[in-house]
Amino acid sequence: MTVTSVKRGADPDILKIGLSDGSLFFIRLSYLPSSIKSRFDSLLTQNTPEVLEISEAEQEQLLFTSQCVRAERKALQLISCAEQTQKGLLQKLEYSGYPEGVSKKVLERLVSLELVDDRRFARAWIQSQTGLSPKKSTSQLVTGLMRRGVDGRIAEESVTSLYPVEVEARAIAWYLRKKGYDPEHLHQLELKQILRRAGFSKGSIRLFIDEIASSDGTCT
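User: That's the sequence. What structure does it adopt?
Assistant: C-alpha cells below.
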C-alpha cells in the first residue's frame, strides 16, 4: 500500500491522506507514533512529494488515527453543548460506536488541552446546585458528582472547598422546614441523628445547633 497524496489544511496537525486503494481520510499527526510521524514530516518538507510506501501495520495506525479524528469531532460537539467529565465523555464516545482505544486516546488529548477538566465540571455543577438558596447536604453533592462521572476524591475535595459549613447550615434549615421538623423542640441528640441520616456534615450540624442555642432555643 502507498500514500499517494498528502494535503495539510488550516490546522497544521491535520493531514488529508490519499491511499493507492482510492481511500481518502483525515489524520492528526499528534495521534501517530513518532516513527510514522517522522516519515510524514519528511514527506511534507519535500518540494515534490513522492509516494510513500507503508506497511500493513502502518496502514492500521493511519486508520486508527482517522477514527480518532472523527471521535475528536464528536467529543468537541459534546463539549460545546455542555461541560463534560472524563468518565462521562468516554462513555458517550463508546456509546456512539467508537472503540475504547480510540476514545481513550482522544480523551487523553482533550484533557491535556484542558478542554475536559473534572474539577472545573465539579465547580460549575456545585454552583448550579447551591446558588442563592442551598438545599443540598454535602453527601448529596458528592454523590451527585460521582454519578456524573467525577472521581470520588475530586468530588469530596470540590464540595469541601466550595460548600462551606455556613452555607450548608442554611440548607439544614430548609431541610427541616420541608420535613416538618421544629428544631427548637427536638432533643439535640435526636436532631443530630436526623441530620446525619440526611447526609449533612458534622461541621454544619454543629454550627446549626450552636446557632439555635445562641438564639435561646430549646434544643439541648
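The first strand starts at residue 2 and ends at 8.
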